[in-house]
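Tip: read the tokens left to right.
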């Protein structure tokens, strides 16, 4: 099969990705083999490719927002039938027995594994997944629009919950890419007032078109005091701005797996008045199931930009520019 792999992590300008021929994977016990139809292009793929995250697998194939068809199965599989459409997310496996797994916090499992980081992902014609970690997808979403739901959507949903926004409250979104544009739709549907702060003019226009109350630069103060904020941009220097923008008792949630260094914080100015600074680590399968049901019920509209499979590197370059509308998606194959 054809697959992209990270030849050597580094800046996109150095050409870290290469398109190669690999052996089609064989599903192990409890796994299914999936023919990849589409794969979303997520910022975490960029972190894996450029080396912001430490390499967990040499020459890994990135991609963890995967939509495909089951075409094979390993021993002991019972959940899916051949030809069924499934979604493969970032979270690939957890131990199931640690105190975090046993208390509904499997996203904190220290032995967790991840698609496109610990195991080859969806920038390929075929991949495998443990059947218990794959999702059935709402029929409402076609193969391209379903892809960003599987990480951008799910992580945004968990970040929104972690942000602890009061009913009818004011929410700030720092950065406005694939995850934020879906989170904004959920927040607006819940009656929240959404303010976007991002560097890109095109992204700001996009946010206003979705119904957000304001859109300014990431280092501007919003026009009103916020109750909560979510930082999607991987820029730690935004944290003090977000903390300054929220009122007493507010929460700032950092949604990314990678964040550059946070400047020193003055306790009185940044954190006093019971402000909370928190993070988001992956998601649980319950988060995923809840979000997909919610996305279906609300009729979310993921905005996607489709790229041919052969242009994965160009799709990552588009993402890296930052001033984007929605999410990039690789088209690998058509459903049969």
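Filled-in amino acids:
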């Amino acid at each position: 099969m054809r697959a992209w792999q990270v030849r050597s992590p580094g800046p996109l300008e150095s050409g870290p990705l290469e398109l190669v021929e690999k052996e089609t994977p064989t599903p192990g016990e409890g796994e299914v083999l999936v023919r990849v139809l589409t794969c979303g292009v997520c910022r975490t793929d960029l972190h894996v490719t450029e080396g912001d995250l430490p390499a967990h697998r040499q020459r890994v194939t990135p991609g963890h927002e995967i939509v495909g068809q089951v075409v094979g199965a390993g021993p002991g599989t019972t959940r899916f039938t051949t030809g069924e459409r499934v979604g493969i997310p970032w979270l690939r496996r957890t131990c199931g027995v640690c105190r975090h797994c046993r208390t509904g916090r499997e996203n904190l499992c220290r032995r967790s594994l991840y698609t496109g980081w610990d195991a080859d992902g969806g920038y390929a014609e075929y991949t495998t997944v443990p059947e218990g970690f794959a999702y059935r997808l709402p029929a409402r979403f076609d193969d391209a629009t379903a892809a960003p739901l599987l990480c951008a959507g799910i992580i945004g949903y968990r970040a929104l919950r972690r942000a602890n926004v009061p009913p009818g409250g004011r929410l700030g979104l720092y950065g406005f890419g694939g995850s934020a544009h879906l989170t904004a739709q959920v927040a607006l549907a819940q009656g929240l007032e959404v303010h976007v702060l991002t560097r890109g003019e095109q992204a700001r226009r996009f946010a206003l078109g979705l119904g957000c109350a304001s859109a300014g630069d990431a280092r501007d103060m919003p026009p009103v005091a916020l109750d909560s904020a979510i930082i999607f941009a991987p820029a730690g220097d935004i944290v003090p701005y977000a903390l300054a923008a929220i009122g007493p008792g507010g929460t700032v949630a950092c949604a990314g797996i990678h964040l550059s260094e946070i400047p020193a914080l003055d306790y009185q100015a940044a954190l006093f008045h019971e402000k909370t600074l928190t993070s988001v680590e992956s998601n649980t399968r319950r988060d995923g199931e809840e979000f997909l049901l919610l996305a279906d019920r609300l009729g979310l509209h993921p905005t996607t930009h489709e790229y041919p499979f052969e242009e994965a590197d160009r799709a990552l370059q588009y993402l890296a520019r930052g001033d984007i509308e929605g999410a990039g998606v690789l088209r690998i194959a058509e459903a049969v």
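The two ends are 18 Å apart (CA to CA). The chain has ten helices and 16 strands.
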